[in-house]
Amino acid sequence: MLLRRRGFTVYKKEPAEDLLIPGRRLLDEYYRQMHRYSFRLFLRDVIKHQEHFTLQQVARYATPNVTAEYLRFITMAGLAREREEGYRLVRPVRSFGETLEWYIAELCRREFGAESVWGVKFKRPQIGGDYDVIARLDNSLLYVEVKSSPPKQIYSREIAAFLERVSDLVPEMAVFLMDTELRMKDKIVPMFEEELAKRHGERPEVSRMEKELFQIKGRIYIINAKDSIIRNMEAVISRYFRR
């Protein structure tokens, strides 16, 4: 109803073609593992080498012992199988994007009691692309744009597209979330300032909340995964409701 009041009708949502999650029996444990930045980076490497990978190929971000535990878990969960002195995914997956969107939607639901959907498409041709995560917190609408790429792979057109969707959807809260522990101030924040200046004719203030968390007029937030995504999302939501 919050979407319909804004003139939006969901056309498609939650595509499963590239979703890498286990069955219900291990879903809770998988969700808990997804809290760990090293596990998410591990999954990205697994997808990158999905036809055949060894422990050494996917152990860049965790110790060999921890990576071996990750491999045992995804094998037990039916996501990968052993093959020729290595492993392979049970089915092709193009990217980590859908799985990360699923995780953020689950996080909104489990940690903050929100109704949430991910991978949403609307029949609104003037504004293209997916809305990665949309959640209802009481009577407030939260929109989260989820990026799994590092800052060097983010370009101004992606910032512009995010701001276009925010202007169209008019959520009470909009979050640009990057699954990285790298600094936001060096590249991402200046790109936001430039894009907002194009729209408003002046450079608006993008202020630091704390560490690598930033806000624009108490409505748009820029965050990363440093410390934890849960903790950073909590900081944003708490700030909004305590304004």
List keywords for this structure.
243 residues, alpha+beta, Arc Repressor Mutant, subunit A, eight-stranded mixed β-sheet, two-stranded antiparallel ribbon, 8 helices, 10 strands, 39% helix, 21% strand
Average pLDDT score: 95
**Separation of the first and last Cα atoms:** 25 Å
Q: What is the overall shape?
A: globular
For the sheet with most strands, the description reads: 8 strands, mixed
What is the architecture of the largest domain at the second tier of CATH?
3-Layer(aba) Sandwich
Structural class: alpha+beta
Question: What secondary-structure arrangement, pairings included, does this model have?
Answer:
Elements: H1 2-5, E1 10-12, H2 27-34, H3 37-48, H4 64-76, E2 80-82, E3 87-89, H5 97-112, E4 115-122, E5 131-137, E6 140-147, H6 156-169, E7 173-178, H7 188-200, E8 207-210, E9 213-216, E10 220-223, H8 229-242
Helix pairs in contact: 6-7
